[in-house]
């Protein structure tokens, strides 16, 4: 899963919460709504809309990932992701594209991996916002919507994030959502021929509920 990209900081938007929670976590990620956005469960057909945005090298300043080589490669990747499971069947994959309601534009994606089918109660999150939409509060709003789903519908007890130590924008954004740095990994990744150091950040259910007034 890709690492969080550079994004701006804005005040959180409360997600629209479904009061009638299902008796068990959903097998596939449900569609989500926030104030300005619709989060659509990722499918193969989204590759056409996502390809141009994912080709922007600015997205990968703090990530070891590379832009997709072509549309066929991206479609193949999405075909696997859209199954909702890792190849060994152990992990749940929840991926949403971010669509702006006012004009239908695709702005990026948010994603979460739930280890052991969600039994661990922990979700590792990631997100990418296309550069033309940075510093507009899009990331904060979309991540807030996703976190609401993870804590409410998937019954997660904790959300984790791994962020390059140089990625000040992402660190500020996550801190604003209640995440705390709990660890640092030296040489956690390598890209552009140089080692990259990473912070591990955690947001637990109690802190999330306190921050959202639940």
UniProtKB/TrEMBL annotation:
The keyword rRNA-binding does not apply. Keywords: Transferase. It holds the Pfam family Acetyltransf_3. Residues 1-29 are annotated as: Disordered. InterPro entries: Acyl_CoA_acyltransferase, GNAT_dom, N-acetyltransferase. Residues 37-206 form the N-acetyltransferase domain. GO terms for molecular function: acyltransferase activity, transferring groups other than amino-acyl groups. The keyword Ribosomal protein does not apply. This is GNAT family N-acetyltransferase.
